Each structure stands twice: as structure tokens, then as C-alpha cells.
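Q: I'm writing a short explainer about Small ribosomal subunit protein uS5m for a general audience and would like to include a description of its predicted shape. Could you first generate the structure from this sequence?
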Amino acid sequence: MAQLLAEFYLREGERIEALGLQQGSKEEQQEEERSRVRYLQFLDDPRTFMHANSEEGYRALSDDAYTVLAPELPKMPELAPKTSGGGGEGDEETHMVRLMQQTGLQKDAIRRLRVKNLVTRRVVNQTRLGKVASMYYLTIAGNGDGLLGIGEGKSTEPEDGRRQSIMNAIRNMKPVVRYEDRTIYGEVEGKVGAVELKLSARPPGKQRAHIHQSFV
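A: Of course. Here's the predicted structure. Afterward I'll give you a sentence or two in plain language.
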């Protein structure tokens, strides 16, 4: 055993000397540390002190399985990120479940809502990466029984923007007080930007003279 250790130290000394490192330098200290690690591996390997009387025994000793050194950790394949599939049937079902939780309405009630797109236009945003084009949608939704909502949506994908506006319109539905379930009370005036809107109560038979579909 002493002879084996002496041979190991002799080989390591010759190897470090052949590198031509400056004595006392940081590189020499790092190389000596690596040499200590190799020395511990040399002692831990049972093949260092074991001998065989046959060729088969030496082949067995040369096998890496005959060692007390811990094997390398197995390389695990990288797991691909999970994606929703983008606009599939499962994605639509997820949006429907979320909408049911937020509004408290059942699926059949949501499907019976009246939805109409009022405004569709292409918009361009100037960013540091250049001009990014997207589609803007303005949608109203109602149940024809006193609930009315309006929603906006914008996305680079037209279908996503349209779905956003519909979902927002349904979420924003508010009750509208109606007189005899057919018209509003009194007169209502509003102004948004340059648009002035005036709503007036109408007598029976005239409230839908120019409306092909009622949302409230």
C-alpha cells in the first residue's frame, strides 16, 4: 500500500511540475487542490488495492460498477411547457366556466344573451420595437329583460379581441329600471366626448319603431 501511495504522489508531482506553474501562485494552489481530490478518489476506489488471479477477474475490476464512488446523476429530459392549445374547445370551456363564476349565471342563460358588435377598427400602437397593429372591438350584451352591458376588447388576434369584448360586456351587465317592462322612466341625457345622447320614455306601440332587436 505504501508503494502504491508513493507512486501516486510521484506521478502527481511530475504532472504538476510539467505544467510549469509559478511556485506559490494561485494556479498552483488550485492544481494542488485538484490533486487532493484525485488522491481521495484514488483511495476510495477498491480497484487500487485489489488484485485478481485471472483475466476475468481483472476485467471485472476494470468495470465501473466495482467502485464505491457515487454514480453520476441521471440526465432528466427537459419538460416541455404546458400550453392551452390556443383557442381550442378546452380554451372556450375555460372562459365559459370563469364567466359563470364571475356573473353567477348558468351556461344556458349565458348562451341565450343577445350580443352585438358595434365598433370594429384597426389600431396601431407605436412602441420601442416599432408599430404594433391590433384590432379594437366595442360590444353590447343584454338579456332582453332589463340587463344591459357594454365591453371593449383589443388584441393582435382578431378572434381574441372579439372574445374579450363579449366577455367584458357580459361581466359589465347592469339592471336598467324599466316602466311597464317596455321603456325607461322620464328622460335621460348623457354626453361622452362630442357625442350627446338623449333617451325619452315612449308610449305603448312606439318604443321599438326603429329598433330591429331589443337588448334591454
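A: For your explainer, you could say: Residues 139 and 166 are 6 Å apart (CA to CA).
Q: Perfect, that's easy to follow.
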